[in-house]
Design brief:
mainly alpha, Arc Repressor Mutant, subunit A, Four Helix Bundle (Hemerythrin (Met), subunit A), 11 helices
Length: 255
């Protein structure tokens, strides 16, 4: 293998959580981790909901020990919060965490993108083009039938962002990017109603793609950072609306 290919191929080392994402589950606990993580991110379990191991056993058809191990691992990722003797709950959502996640995601994702542009080969280029094409094809369907296509659009959006970062050569960096992306998606899913995505999203994605193919690292990273910031701002506005509505509702009950 040439030195160039060694630089652009993701190594077989790094955090175990990343290796599981890449290679798939190897144990019952891995399987429970992947399935529960996805259910939390997509909102099947809302922020603040208690996670009862016995109910999770029934839901996933997995024993108590793998479920508890998965809950502990998701607590490390920040998706689950331990409550001492009371067990676990889905982590709540706050505007402070959303802003922190957006800031860090900008930093880590643009670093990964810069490295990918510097090191990526034609296979990386083909990957981002294909991921963008698949995502774009889904946008019209999403607007026409949001209930049926929102989940698939989210998967394709995630795949596009992952493809942008894929040639960075660092499993640790990819791991952190994945954690931050999933937190962003969790917040978006909690407050955004489809198909009310920002109208500029398609244009922003295309501009990022074009800058990457032109190997314009500075412009691509600027566009990606702006894209993340705009998404966080839109999500924050919806979160503030929900918070204000909840406060008004609680206030009316006290009268």
């Amino acid at each position: 293998m040439s030195e160039f290919l060694r630089k652009t191929t993701t190594p077989e080392w790094g955090p175990s959580a990343w290796l599981i994402r890449r290679a798939g589950p190897r144990t019952h606990a891995d399987d429970a981790l992947i399935r529960l993580r996805q259910d939390i991110i997509t909102g099947e379990f809302a922020p603040g909901v208690r996670l009862r191991p016995d109910k999770l056993e029934e839901r996933y058809g997995i024993g108590r020990n793998p479920v508890r191990e998965a809950l502990s691992r998701l607590a490390v990722e920040g998706l689950v919060r331990g409550e001492g003797q009371r067990g676990f709950q889905v982590a709540p959502v706050t505007r402070e965490e959303l802003l922190d996640v957006a800031d860090l995601r900008q930093r880590f994702s643009t670093l990964a993108l810069a490295r990918s542009i510097a090191q990526g080969d034609e296979h990386w280029e083909a990957g981002i083009v294909a991921a963008h094409h698949r995502m774009s094809r889904m946008e019209a369907s999403l607007v026409g039938d949001p209930a049926s296509y929102a989940d698939e659009w989210e998967k394709r959006n995630s795949a596009f962002h992952s493809a942008l970062e894929a040639a960075c050569g660092s499993p640790w960096l990819l791991h952190f990017c994945a954690l931050l992306y999933e937190q962003s998606e969790r917040y978006r899913r909690a407050v955004v109603r489809y198909p009310k995505l920002r109208p500029s999203i398609h244009t922003e994605h295309k501009a990022i793609l074009d800058a990457c193919l032109a190997r314009d690292e500075k412009e691509a990273c600027r566009l990606l950072a702006d894209h993340i910031a705009r998404g966080a701002k839109a999500t924050l506005a919806k979160l503030d609306e929900q918070t204000a509505a909840g406060e008004r509702k609680r206030g009316s009950k006290k009268k």
